[in-house]
Amino acid sequence: MKFLPEWWKKTEKTERNAHVLTFLLTLSICSYQSAFISIVLGIAGAYILADCIKKKSIRGFASDRECWFGMAVFLATVVISSLMLGDKGSIRIALNYVYWSLPFFMIIYFMKQADVKYTVLLGVGVCILMDGLYTAYQYGLLAQGVKHIGRFGRIELFYGHPNHYAMFLIAMLPLLLFALQDHTLQGIKRFKAADIFLIALGLWSLLKTGSRGAFGGLAIGIFVIILIYCYRNKSVKKFLAGLVLCACVSGLMSTLMVGGMQRRYDSERLLLLQSSYAMWQDHKLLGVGLNNWEEQYQKKYIMKTAKERKLTVPHNTVAWFFTTTGVIGGAGYLFFVLYYSVLLFRKTGSEADRDRWILYAVLLSFIAVNLHGMVDVGFTHKGIARLLYLLLGFALYRSCTNNALRKQRNIV
C-alpha cells in the first residue's frame, strides 16, 4: 500500500487530476448509477472547462478525424432525420444521443494529460468486482427462497433488467481478458491472479443474468477476434485450437445458462420484426420519430397473434433506427458500426505490440454489444452508449497518438 502515497507525491498535479477523474468517469459509467454519473460528469466537465479557460484553448479535445468521423456521421443523420420530421420529442431524444457521446471527448482530454491506460483498466476491474460480489449475494438470497430478486431467477442488480446487466458485462470483460497480454502486467503475478479471478467472476455473473443475446454476442465476438488474430499471425493451428476451446466453453456455458437456451417468447421476436418492417415500409425516409415508436406500434402495427402487447422497442437496434429515423438514420447507424469495426480491425495490424491488446479488447466489446443489440436495446441504451464511446475514444486516440510518435521518431 506504500505505492499510492509515493506515486501521489512524485506525480504532477495535472497528471494526478487526470488519473482520478478518469477512474471516477470509468467507474461511474460502468456501474450505471445515475446520480454518480451526473456528479462525475459535472465535476469532470467543470475541471475541463476551467482548464480550457486557463489555457485559453480547446485543443485538448482535438484528435484525428478518423477517430470521430464515424460517430459524427451517425449522430448527424439521427439529428437531421428528427429535425426534418419536425417532432419535438424526437428532436429531444436525438440531442440526448449527442449528449451521451461526451465520454468520448472527455477521455481524449484526460489522455492528453496523463497515460490513463491502467486507470481505465482499474475502473473496469473495480466495477466487475463490486457487481460480481453483489451478484453472489443476490444468488445466495435466491438460493434461500427469496423470490422478489431477479426475473425468473435471473439477476439484474441495479441495471434495470438482466439483459442490460449482461450488456455491461460483455462490454467490460474484454479489457480484463486482453490485459493478460500487457507486457508490463505480465510480470506481476498478483495482477495475473486478480485478473483471472475477476474474469471468472464476470463470466459467472453473465451466466446468472441468463442473457442468451449477450452470451451469443460475446461468443461470436471472441470467434471473430480469434479469426483476426490468426489471420494476422498466419497460424492455422492457433485458429483451430482457439475454435475448439471457444466451442467447448460456449457449450459448457450454454448448459449452465439460467433459464435455459429456449424461452416461451422466442416466436414473439419474429412477430416484432415483421411489425417493424411494416412500420418502416410506411415511413421509409424519416421514420416515425424516436419518440413515437411505441404509439405507432400499439395503434397500427402490432400483430394480432402477438402475446407481448406492451413492448416499447423492437428489440433490434437496426430495426429501431430504420423505423424511427428512416433510411437516413438507419444508414447512419450501419455506417457507424461498419466504420469502427473496420477501423479497429485495421489498427490491430498497425499498432505496436505493447498496446495492441487494447484495440483487440475494444473491438471485441464493440462487436459483442452490437450483436447483442440485434435481439435487444443495444446501443440505444444510454449507459451502454456512454461506455462504448468511452472505450472507442480510449482505444482510437491512443492508437493515433502512438502512430504519430513513431512517425516522428522515424523522421528524426
UniProtKB/TrEMBL annotation:
Annotated signal peptide: none
Q: Which GO terms describe its cellular component?
A: membrane
Q: Does the keyword Membrane apply?
A: yes
Ranges that cross the membrane: 20-47, 67-85, 91-111, 118-137, 157-179, 213-232, 239-261, 318-345, 357-375, 387-405
Q: Which GO terms describe its molecular function?
A: ligase activity
Q: Where in the cell is it found?
A: Membrane
**Where in the numbering of this chain does the O-antigen ligase-related domain appear?**
198-334
Report membrane topology.
Multi-pass membrane protein
Superkingdom, according to UniProt?
Bacteria
Listed name of the protein: O-antigen ligase
Q: What is the lineage of its organism?
A: Bacteria, Bacillati, Bacillota, Negativicutes, Acidaminococcales
